[in-house]
Amino acid sequence: MSVTSRYREAWEGFWREAPGGQGGVFWDAEPTLTVARHLALFEPYLSDPGLPLVDLGCGNGTQTRFLADRFPHVVGADLSAAALDHARRADPAGRASYRQLDAADKGEAQGLRAELGDVNVYVRGVLHQCEADDRQPLVDGIATLIGDRGRAFLVEPSEAAGALLQSLTASPAGPPPKVAAVFRHGIAPGRVADDAAPEFLAAAGLTLLVSGTVPLTTTEYAPDGSRIELPSGWYVTGRAG
Prior knowledge:
Elements (H helix, E strand, L loop, with lengths): L4 H13 L17 H8 L10 E4 L5 H7 L5 E5 L2 H9 L7 E4 L5 H11 L3 E5 L10 H12 L4 E7 L1 H11 L7 H8 L11 H8 L3 E15 L5 E12 L3
Parallel strand pairs: 1-2, 1-4, 2-3, 4-5
Antiparallel strand pairs: 5-7, 6-7
């Protein structure tokens, strides 16, 4: 299956209107506060760090460029062509390569796997943005990409994060501008149960190697001036044995 045309167009519209430069969208926090923290959790479980690394749902490529300074071959993959335009403009030296990919489409995942072989995969906050029927196919696509030797790292907002986002949108002043931009394009984050990710992984034939919790830092601030951080869970997965 593939994602719906409505979902694809929602993301194209969002990224066409998104400002250029780092930090212009809600989840585009500095790499030192996001992917660097995640790598400290992920790297000890990489069975082969020399494999290509796919940043799945790379958006404008902020985290991708950080990864490209630390791994020999990094591919930023995203559903949205407009997002990839942002990523390429921000990476004139071509530190990473960029590919349009619908990872919920079995054929597209198999095609990238045939090209790259087994890969390691980094996924930050993509599952909860998917439509419900696309979540298992997305995880199935991740399983296809990592093959036998790769590992995947997923970090997803927890159920508690949903309550926090709801409180932001219910504020008398309205949601923060970067949150409002997401909702304006019909990309309402879906609440994913805390026990759902391990179930998706198991259904895809993957073994959960380790999991934990970590705050997911955003670019928005609360009324008291503090940075908004979403409670999140993280998971490292791969093939058994």
